[in-house]
Design a protein that fits this description.
Length: about 260
């Protein structure tokens, strides 16, 4: 069985991490399969991506059995296996929704945090995990979690290894929505369809703006906004949006 499965529904590509017996912990094969899925996600026909897990877990980071059996050079493994996929995910010019259906731990938490949006099933949980085995956050965990939660809260949490419930994650702003487990898949599909029907170029450029804002000066950010706004006005979706507004009809965005 494939370690990562992809399915299409219109403009939505769903990527399902598929090692349910170990809550979708990463082994080498799953890294390779995720890389292929993220490549598929670059298809312009794909206008929104959902990342989720098979079974009762989202992703619990590194497979510790593989780690025990072949420890090797962790730094090199991170550079070879984790970093390219985190960078590929961030580079997607479309929204990526993490549908956190169960435990997200370690590099699985980092992966969810690298996505543009997160929703959680009410039985999901969020576990730093790294410090629980004496490691430090990796795969962007220190980058994304600090940006999402703020330095103080992120540091306290990531060094405490406290398991966060979905409700707590929502209260902290780590996820935007919590959904009953029975209704979760349907809600994720509904939200993804809404994202896929949105002006894709506008969303992609909004991602670039928010990414840049973390390190820009105000002057630099204003200039980038001006450049990307000019680019946005050249999209078909901008013409469609204005036309739909002026003729009082719903817009039909095509993502171009
Ligand atoms: O090598 C490198 O590249 C370094 C990279 C490191 C990046 C990292 O991600 S380090 C962090 C690694 N992850 C963890 O330490 C998390 C370990 N897991 C847990 O703490 C717990 O599983 C959870 C709190 C996340 C969930 O607990 P619970 O009670 O819901 O499930 P469970 O019973 O612990 O797990 C279910 C099964 O999955 C179980 O197997 P079994 O007993 O049914 O045969 C468990 O052993 C397995 N499992 C869970 N996490 C991992 C795992 N197997 C391998 N690796 C795991 N990370």
């Amino acid at each position: 069985m494939a370690e990562v499965e992809t399915t299409r529904d219109g403009g939505v590509l769903t990527i399902t991490l598929n090692r349910p017996d170990v809550l979708n912990a990463f082994d080498s094969a799953m890294h390779r399969a995720l890389a292929a899925a993220l490549k598929e996600a670059r298809d312009p026909e794909v206008r929104a991506v959902v990342l989720t897990g098979a079974g009762r877990g989202f992703c619990v980071g590194q497979d510790l059995t593989e780690f025990r059996d072949a420890p090797g050079d962790i730094g090199e493994r991170l550079r070879r296996n984790y970093h390219p996929n985190i960078l590929a995910l961030r580079a997607l010019e479309k929204p990526v929704l993490a549908a956190v259906n169960g435990p997200a731990a370690g590099a699985g938490l980092s992966l969810a945090s690298a996505c543009d949006l997160r929703i959680a099933a009410d039985n999901a949980s969020f576990v730093p995990a790294f410090i629980g085995i004496g490691l430090v956050p990796d795969s962007g965990g220190s980058f994304f979690v600090a940006r999402l939660l703020g330095h103080a809260r992120a540091f306290e949490w990531m060094t405490s290894n406290r398991k966060l419930t979905a409700a707590e994650a929502h209260a902290w702003g780590l996820v935007s929505e919590v959904v009953e487990a029975d209704a979760f898949a349907a809600r994720a599909a509904e939200l993804a369809a809404t994202l896929a029907a949105a002006p894709t170029r506008g969303i992609a450029m909004t991602k670039r703006l928010f990414d840049a804002a973390a390190t820009s000066t105000l002057e630099e950010q204003l200039e980038l906004e001006a450049q990307l706004q000019a680019a946005a006005t050249r999209t078909d979706d901008f013409a469609e949006g204005v036309s739909a507004f002026l003729t009082k009809r719903p817009p039909e965005f095509r993502g171009s």
